[in-house]
Design brief:
alpha+beta, Methane Monooxygenase Hydroxylase, Chain G, domain 1, Alpha-Beta Plaits, 3 domains, four-stranded antiparallel beta sheet, 14 helices, disordered N terminus
Length: 403
């Protein structure tokens, strides 16, 4: 029996853990679940799909511990009022976990999906693989800083599972151990090399067949875009709560509207495609993907609901903000400002400020995700960026036409 199965099925005892710590871990877990589940489907990888279910069980334990800690923290009616939105966050995070599990089951339960999806993947989509560290690996017993994978190969270790323990944000001091389950992301050619060095085995990518449905690329592009927007919505939703930002919460609403519109167009395309497909049942998995993605964006709305209702953030949430200097900010670029016309390359604006641009909402054009693309900032753009508090304040100053 897997260690996580025992953890999920056994009674969860109350532990005096920080509510803030549990919420942060739930956030990180939810984001990884989304990433893994879609990668499992798009790359038809049963190993990744299995890790999704492992992580989903871990989320169930985190949810129960969060509820216990919140109940212990409520000491008055005022506490109960301020903690109610936090309970909504916990429930919404579990909804995200369930949606990710449903996506993974497309692979594990062999729900039909067009075999040509892998071929139609955009070149910009990096490969995500799962590998078990072998006893003979050159990485065993070494830290990520010592290995320096990202600088040398462009491949990142985005998470490690060590038995039932998850390391969701491995850093420079994280040490790789034998039998660790490593999740690697990067360009396919480099991933193959790192996978071989880590596991002692050859990486065998799935060979795609010729497209069986006309214009399949449209479906894949739409699914990838919906996934990215939903992932951004979840990130902004948590940030809106942590930083008590009504502006970020409103952007979550805008993202959810965009995902709904994409899903509507996507469903219409699938129905039209079914009439011309040799095997319409092969499109069943696409419908599952669209439905689950919409559930994730709906959950993001539930996470930010307390902010939109102007309910004061409970101190257990506020503590997370006080301990972190990095924040997510939203600014609107005014005509004639220093940022109007500024190029952005791989998320970095060519300006006297050290922030990373995550996304742009451009009037009349919708959302542009720029972390891995180039763009120019324009007047009227609503920009979502990440950086230190000082950098965020400077970014806001530069966006003003009076700067």
């Amino acid at each position: 029996m897997d260690p996580l199965e025992g953890e999920a099925s056994s009674p969860v005892a109350y532990e005096p853990v920080s509510v803030k710590d549990v919420l942060v871990e739930m956030k990180d877990t939810a984001e990884l679940l989304i990433d893994l589940s879609y990668s499992a489907v798009l790359h038809r990888n049963t190993g990744l799909a299995g890790e999704v279910l492992q992580l989903e069980e871990r989320m169930d334990v985190l949810e129960m511990r969060a509820r216990m800690s919140l109940l212990m923290a409520a000491r008055s009616p005022d506490d109960a009022e301020r903690l109610a939105p936090v309970l909504s966050i916990v429930a919404a995070t579990d909804q995200i976990s369930d949606a990710a599990g449903d996506i993974a089951k497309i692979v594990l339960e062999d729900i039909r999906i067009p075999e040509a999806m892998r071929m139609a993947l955009p070149d910009a989509v990096e490969t995500l693989v799962r590998g078990v560290v072998s006893t003979t690996s050159a990485y065993t017993g070494r830290t990520l800083k010592d290995i320096d994978l990202e600088s040398e190969t462009g491949v990142r270790v985005i998470a490690l599972r060590r038995g039932s323990e998850w390391l969701l944000n491995p850093g420079p001091t994280t040490q790789i151990e034998t039998d660790d389950v490593a999740l690697l992301r990067g360009p396919e050619a480099e991933v193959e090399q790192v996978y071989r060095s880590m596991t002692g085995e050859e990486y065998e990518p799935i060979e795609s067949e010729s497209p069986a449905v006309d214009d399949l690329e449209r479906a894949v592009d739409t699914i990838v875009h919906m996934k990215n927007l939903s992932e951004l919505a979840v990130d902004l939703a948590y940030s809106s709560v942590l930083f008590d930002s009504e502006e970020l919460a409103e952007e979550v609403q805008n993202l959810e509207i965009e995902v709904d519109a994409l899903e509507s167009r996507f469903e219409a395309w699938v129905l039209r495609a079914a009439a011309n497909a040799d095997d319409p049942v092969s499109l069943r998995g696409l419908i599952h993907l669209g439905t689950s993605t919409e559930m994730i964006s709906d959950a993001a709305i539930d996470i930010s609901e307390g902010v939109l209702r102007d309910i004061e953030v409970h101190p257990v949430v506020g503590m997370a903000v006080q301990e972190s200097d990095e924040i997510i900010t939203r600014i609107e670029i005014e005509p004639g400002s220093d940022l109007d016309g500024t190029p952005v390359s791989a998320g970095v604006p060519d300006a006297d400020v050290t922030v990373s641009v995550i996304a742009i909402r451009r009037p009349g054009e919708g959302w542009l995700l720029v972390a891995d693309a180039d763009a120019d900032l324009r007047a009227g753009d609503v920009v979502i960026a990440k950086g230190t508090r000082t950098a965020a304040e400077r970014f806001d100053e530069l966006s003003s036409g009076g700067s």
